[in-house]
Amino acid sequence: MTQAIPIHVINLDRRPDRLERIGDHLAARGVAFHRQSACDAQAVPEAEIARVIQATGALGRLGLGDRACTVSHTLAWSAFLDGPASHALFLEDDIFLAEDLADTLSSTDWIPPSTHAVKLEKFNAGTSRLLLAPAVGATPRGRALHPMRSRHVGGGAYILSRKGAEAALAYRGRYTVPIDHFLFNDTVSPIRKALNAAMVVPAMATQRAYGYESDIAPLGKAIRPKGWRKRLRTLRRGLAEVSQAPRQAVQWATGAARIIEVGFEETPPRG
Q1: pTM
Q2: What radius of gyration do the chain's Cα atoms show?
Q3: Dist CA 152 CA 158 (whole Å)
């Protein structure tokens, strides 16, 4: 089967075990991939990371692990743009993907021209209730493609078009939130409208298949402040959420979007 959408797998040099695991998994799914050497927060100077992503932002002070992860994704985007493909799938190396992956990547015809980011991953365990617009298409095996109207983070598996990658890379040096919030959190993302992100339903990727084994968690995600700094961060996050509430309420009330329960399903709707 032809693979029209290349895969870029982000992997730390010191984690060959995870590279082997995802390599075996993708081989079993019938697809090829390119490895992207990840930015290692334990080895790369903070000043180098700071040239890509700032230390503080709407979510408060960021951990070095989250910031290095963001750098890694930008490296993968650049590698994609160096090639000829119109779209690419970006994976973190602890992801597990559904059995219809090869069919999904066999063509880009199912992705609308105005959609520049497609989220394949259901973040965290269980299901989530998300505000989504009516479906604008479907994958080759019948997973619906819904434009996102509320945030759903997680950067383990997503597709970008060339225009989407170029728009995202234009912010290099000005990122102030982790990569998944930058792409898929409409309360803080400066490129929400440009990406017009959509989500595959049911989701076809999860980072919970192998248990939680994050390499960046020990290095700190968003730093948790105390005292008045904690209250200030809570206020800022609350204001960001409230800022989108009127838009979301109107979309729900007019039928332009509805609440949909989203979970990961390994088997697609059409066998």
Answers
A1: 0.86
A2: 18
A3: 12
Which pair of structure tokens corresponds to residue 117? 């980011």
Half-sphere exposure for 266 (CA within 13 Å, toward CB): 7
Cα 71 to Cα 73: distance, rounded to the nearest angstrom:
5
Q: 182-235: per-residue pLDDT in tens?
A: 999 988 889 988 999 999 999 999 987 666 565 555 555 555 555 545 544 444
Q: What is the pLDDT of residue 229?
A: 52
DSSP code of residue 250? H
| Domain-wise residue ranges, the chain | 7-262
DSSP E strand boundaries for 55-197? 56-57, 60-61, 87-92, 96-97, 117-119, 128-132, 137-138, 144-147, 157-161
Query: HSE on the CB side for 91, CA within 13 Å?
Result: 27
pLDDT tens track for 2-35: 999 999 999 999 999 999 999 999 999 999 999 9
Joined tokens for residue 158: 């997503």
Domain range 7-262, CATH architecture? Alpha-Beta Complex (3.90)
